[in-house]
Design goal:
With about 425 residues, the chain is an alpha/beta fold. It has 3 domains: about 120 residues, Nucleotidyltransferase, domain 5 (2-Layer Sandwich), CATH 3.30.420.140; about 130 residues, Orthogonal Bundle (Helix Hairpins), CATH 1.10.287; about 140 residues, no CATH class. The protein contains 20 helices and 7 strands. The strands form 2 sheets. It has a 5-stranded mixed sheet with strand order 3-2-1-4-5. Helix 5 packs antiparallel against helix 11, helix 11 packs across helix 13 and helix 14 crosses helix 17. The relative contact order is 0.07. One of its GO terms (biological process) is DNA transposition. Pfam families: DEDD_Tnp_IS110 (PF01548), Transposase_20 (PF02371). This is Transposase.
Length: about 425
């Protein structure tokens, strides 16, 4: 076996090769890119000999990332690549000394020694398909833009509160096309008060608002013309300049979010697991794509439903010492995945009587709403794992059969 520590930076990699006894065989600083990868293959080939291609699986590489062309090239070469969590690496580094000293070469040595002694405890980089990787790229970009839109909307709201509170009463949602159009046209109290009903109705119709347009337009005009405390005219004009910029950014984000949503649906619809994922209660094309992207589609990555739940962060953790035992939620998890899974819960409780019954039971025991939702999400992850493993679609009766069984039958099954 050959163990390699790879401490990566933006433009170079510090490499150390180590044998099974912990003896350093070679070390080097390699450039990022094709030239660096070729030199790494040469270093490994010198140690493995002429049969390097046939024994590539005997090479274990530790690196503190699981993505990028460099990692993909390592996997394509047949090496076993372990993505080491930076927090794990930091804790492991303390075994060598408590002084806090750190260098790139020392980190490469530490990573090589870590995969030498603890590779059985580390998770190899998943071999997801190119289709799953594509879904991950577009779904993450889509969600990132939604988060970015929320940040910009909050900045807009804070600015309006400082000088134009009437706008907050006039527009319930600041990211809608009609609100952005009217704010861009009249970004200060004086100009907003001059907006006519025709201008407001036109904006509402262009945004395809439903219902009584005339009534909505009247309410918006009345709110914009109501008396409020304000700022001096020169200050209001300065704020108006920033509001125009903010509305332009939000309009662009709305457009790009819609474009990316189409890309997410297109890539997700082409994946062979899409039908199974969409059969789950509460998962549509967007949430389903996020769940599939973050879990990946490597069928050997999760050995059991428990392993998938642990990665999802929905399963609890137990801290036991002596007579003390505490069961708590996992707070170290994939934020994007847990966000998608918790978003699934509410629509799932509408579509699935079993999910609703479990939530109601937990609430009746005194469990708070968030903990109950996390528990339901944990159960739904287990159901998804079973469906993917057996290549079957979701079935309500099968998924919740253990809860509908009679008490004596459930006891026997346990």
């Amino acid at each position: 076996m050959l163990f390699v520590g790879d401490d990566w930076a933006e433009d170079h990699h510090d490499i150390e090769l180590m044998d099974a006894s912990g003896r350093r065989l070679a070390r080097a600083r390699l450039p990022e890119g094709v030239a660096g990868m070729a030199r790494l293959h040469a270093l490994i080939g010198e140690q493995l000999g002429e049969d390097a291609d046939e024994t590539a699986e005997q090479v274990v590489i530790g690196i503190e990332t699981d993505k990028g062309p460099w990692v993909q090239a390592l996997i394509a070469a047949g090496y076993r690549v372990c993505a080491v969590n930076p927090l794990q690496a930091s804790r492991y580094r303390e075994r060598y000394g408590m002084s806090g000293a750190k260098s790139d070469g020392a980190d490469a040595h530490m990573l090589a020694d870590m995969v030498r002694t603890d590779s059985h405890q580390l998770r190899p980089v998943a071999g997801d398909s190119a289709e799953a990787a594509a879904i991950k790229v577009v779904s993450r970009a889509h969600k990132s833009m939604i988060w970015e839109r929320t940040r910009h909307m909050q900045r807009l709201r804070h600015a309006l509160r400082d000088y134009f509170p009437a706008a907050l009463e006039a527009f319930e949602e600041l990211t809608t096309p009609d609100a952005l159009e009217l704010l861009a046209k009249a970004p200060d109290p004086a100009s907003a008060a001059k907006l006519t009903l025709t201008q407001i109705r036109t904006a509402l119709k262009r945004a395809r608002r439903r219902g009584d347009i005339d009534t909505k337009a009247g309410k918006i005009q009345a709110a914009l013309r109501a008396e409020h405390l304000g700022q001096p005219a020169v200050v209001a004009q300065a704020y108006a300049t920033t509001i125009r910029a903010a509305t332009a950014v939000l309009a662009t984000l709305n457009e790009q979010i819609k474009t990316l949503q189409g890309q997410v649906e297109q890539h997700f619809g082409q994946h062979p697991d899409a039908e199974i994922v969409l059969s789950q209660p509460g998962l549509g094309p967007i949430l389903g794509a996020r769940v599939l992207a973050e879990f990946g589609d490597d069928q050997h990555r999760y050995t059991s439903a428990k392993a998938r739940k642990n990665y999802a962060g929905t399963s609890p953790i137990t801290r036991a010492s002596g007579k003390k035992k505490v069961v708590a939620a996992r707070y170290v998890h994939n934020d994007r995945l847990i966000d998608a899974l918790l978003s699934q819960v509410v629509p799932a409780m509408t579509a699935s009587p079993g999910a609703r019954a479990l939530y109601d039971e937990l609430r009746a025991r005194g469990t708070d709403h968030f903990a109950a939702c996390r528990h339901v999400a944990n159960r739904l992850v287990g159901i998804l794992h079973g469906c993917l493993k057996t290549r079957t679609l979701y079935n309500e009766e099968t998924a919740w059969a253990h809860r509908s069984a009679k008490p004596e039958e459930a006891a026997v099954a346990a």
